[in-house]
Amino acid sequence: MAENISVDVSRLDGGGPPEPAPRTRNTCPSCNSHYREDEMVANLRVCTNCGHHFPVTARERIVQLADEGSFTEIARSLHSDDPLEFADSKPYPERLRVAERTTGLRDAAIAGSCEIGGTATALVVLDFSFLGGSMGSVVGEKVARAADLAVEQRLPLVSVSASGGARMQEGVLALMQMAKTVSAVDELREAGRPFVSVLVHPTTGGVAASYAALGDLIIAEPGALLSFSGPRVVKQTTGEDLPDDFGLAESNFRHGHVDLIVPRPELRDAVARSLALLTGGQPYRPPVLVGDLDPVGALTRAMSGMRRRISDMNPFRNGDAGDD
Ligand SMILES: [Zn+2]
């Protein structure tokens, strides 16, 4: 018994090196800070020590963005077939079943309508935890239906994208979703409905190269990788050294591909204010931007360009209520 006590005391005195806390999905990969699940939810899954943005599921994203109790899902029962009878190391239907079980979703997107800051909007959110947020026929259809809903009900459209690209298991049918979603966004534009595209880590491949790049306003979370191919592939292909921030949101902002970089705690506010402005709601006040950018100047430029585009494409700008 005495032996047992002495072992316990030496541990309490810090006689040995402290055991590192086990790494979990709530351990920050940048600074090793560790959070309980309730802290993660309260912090919107942003590290309060270093600002690292953890992944967010589609459901949680909707909770973060939509006004309480306002979200109604559409096209919930859509489910992917296996048209190519595709099998790599596992058959595609088996991959789908595992993804369904682990995420509770039927595919990598949730679409519907909601209010954000009091403005009614169509919303489609991709979920990276379902087969890497890949866009197959179901994701493409949900994006298109959200755009259709916006046209039918004269709403703006908000999309939140996180995707590895087209779903290879659906081959050319997945690639066709690029054309389909672009066409849906085009119809939205012709109907004069605004489109706010939010890009989060990572948005790549066929999603980065289709509808997600076509927002009237494109907002990114800080540090997100937003590029058609990842830096490793580009480096291998071109044989050139790439800048450290290649493909990141900040680099995309400098090159004009992203209009605003908004940290997640400000995101709901930024989307709400943008929607209010674009639909003729209350006056817009700028959100906080990260980094050493010129926030007010950048914002003013982005918003004035956007107002011009919206007014050009709005068929009812002379006060004609159109075919409502
Ligand atoms: Zn951190």
Number of helices: 11
- The tally of strands reads 8
What is the makeup of the main sheet? 8 strands, mixed
Q: Approximately what portion of the residues adopt beta-strand conformation?
A: 5-15%
What best-fitting shape do the alpha-carbon axes yield? globular
Query: How many domains would you count in the coordinates?
Result: 1
CATH H-level homologous superfamily name:
2-enoyl-CoA Hydratase, Chain A, domain 1
Quick one: CATH class? Alpha Beta
Poorly predicted regions: 1-7, 286-293, 305-324
Q: Might you state the CATH topology name?
A: 2-enoyl-CoA Hydratase, Chain A, domain 1
The CATH architecture would be Alpha-Beta Complex
Calculate the terminal CA-CA distance, rounded to whole Å: 85 Å
Helix residue percentage: 25-40%
Q: Name the average pLDDT.
A: 86
Rg over CA atoms, rounded to whole Å, is 22 Å
Identify every distinct bound molecule in the structure, by name, code or SMILES: zinc ion
Q: Structural class, please?
A: alpha/beta
What does the secondary structure layout of this molecule look like, with pairings?
Blueprint: H1 2-12, H2 37-42, H3 58-65, E1 72-74, H4 92-103, E2 109-116, E3 119-126, H5 137-153, E4 157-163, H6 171-190, E5 195-204, H7 205-208, E6 217-220, E7 226-227, H8 231-238, H9 249-254, E8 260-261, H10 264-278, H11 295-313
Parallel strand pairs: 3-4, 4-5, 5-6, 5-7, 6-8
Antiparallel strand pairs: 1-2, 2-3
Helix pairs in contact: 5-6
The protein binds zinc ion.
Zinc ion (ZN) binds at residues 28, 30-31, 33, 47, 49-50, 52.
